[in-house]
Amino acid sequence: MNQYLDISPEVSQALADHKPVVALESTIISHGMPYPQNVETALKVNQIIRDCGAVPATVAIIGGRLKAGLSDEEIEYLGKAGSKVAKVSRRDLPVIVSKGLDGATTVATTMIIAHMAGIQVFATGGIGGVHRGAETTMDISADLEELAQTPVMVVCAGAKSILDLGLTLEYLETKGVPVIGYGTDELPAFYTRRSGFGVDYQLDTPEEIAGAFRAQRGMGLKTGMLVTNPIPEEFSMDPAVINKAIDEAVAEAQAQGIHGKATTPFLLAKIKDITGGDSLDSNIQLVFNNARLASAIAASL
User: Fold this and answer.
1) Nearest to 125 by CA among 148, 83, 168, 154
2) Which of 74, 76, 146, 160 is catalytic?
3) Is 160 a known active-site residue?
4) Is the pTM of this model over 0.70?
């Protein structure tokens, strides 16, 4: 057991009993949505996972302790604190932990802590990736590097459409990370079902995906696996509307000099404002959808 890690009794018992467990990130609570929708969404996701026969394990850092499995009270605390809580990626862990601080975990850090705890499957909204203009800024999310070195399956609605999706796929290919489309041969683009970019493989059932992951682990391959799950058709946004909003948000971020870890929260908030809240509604529904699929894959594993 890692000396900095606390696993909740519910999650610990589920792992001991070989029951399905699904990890969840906490940046989506503190930085991804406004209060109270963030807390309501997090608690609803927990319920969805339980209804699917799995155990939810929201990951965060509380008082310098790595947590795999948060209480409802801890989720409420993170939701109310919002962006006052540090957004923690791999590089931030040593200082946040040593100083006994609180932190909301990104995709990368959630993968790290999930792997420490022995959790194989992680559901989120969308992963980070190669930002637009990265050929000059070198702004590439640590999520991609973590997928290259940490053997956890990440179930998402594709890469966030604020990114350069083509370069994101090229980066993942270079790092040897398999990109699986669940029932689709095209990379979903978070708010929309299609991006125009192909995935590596289309697999059509949770059992097939679990089988591929089992084979990956059995061969001793050290990479993670990215499973992309399109947003349900009824909640998918008009590509023209969302792309226009993204272009406006990116232009404003550049004008204000927003960069690094502040970029994604800024863009998501600005897109929500531009779309009159429609993007937030879509964001919430795709998270629910990913939680259901991740639960089914975890149960098969």
Assistant:
1) 154
2) 160
3) yes
4) yes
